[in-house]
Specification:
Length: 155
């Protein structure tokens, strides 16, 4: 049984979030100055070009397939598109081109909006469901409302 703490244990004894941040980005150094986007950017920069290309292709194809085959699942498609754009951002970030900062910023803004759409879609599906209510309102051919069950029959 050992009683003394290692350097790692004493460093993170009072900082549970520091442990989480260190697990996400082990080589981060000073964690107090990093935000979530810095952590994601560092993790993407550590991946190989081949892995980033594969991620971009697979995630982009998945997003397109979901949108075409299952349009009601648009929130999952936006999440896959965000993964695709994150990989594209990392590929552009690796190349030092004169227009790259502006393009990278545009891709980062689009990725952020897709992540927000993903979160909204998942929240809508979780809190409102995606099927008809068992006690709802239906409309007949003339536009008049009537109470109906889940199958659409009058109650």
């Amino acid at each position: 049984m050992r009683l003394e703490k290692t350097a790692w244990e004493s460093r993170f004894t009072h900082a549970p979030l520091g442990i989480l941040a260190q697990m996400i980005d082990p080589g981060s150094g000073d964690l107090s100055r990093q935000n979530v986007l810095d952590v994601f950017a560092n993790r993407l920069r550590q991946r190989t070009m081949l892995a980033l290309r594969r991620q971009a292709i697979v995630a982009g194809a998945t997003a397109a397939l979901i949108l075409v085959a299952f349009p009601a699942w648009w929130s999952l498609a936006s999440g896959a598109a965000a993964l695709c754009l994150a990989a594209v951002w990392a590929l552009i970030d690796r190349r030092h081109v004169s227009h790259a900062p502006l393009l990278a910023r545009a891709i980062a803004l689009l990725t952020t909006s897709l992540v927000i759409l993903f979160a909204i879609g998942i929240a809508l599906a979780a809190f409102t469901g995606d099927s008809r209510s068992p006690y709802g309102m239906c409309y007949d051919s003339s536009g008049r409302a009537f109470a109906c069950d889940a199958a659409g029959a009058r109650r």
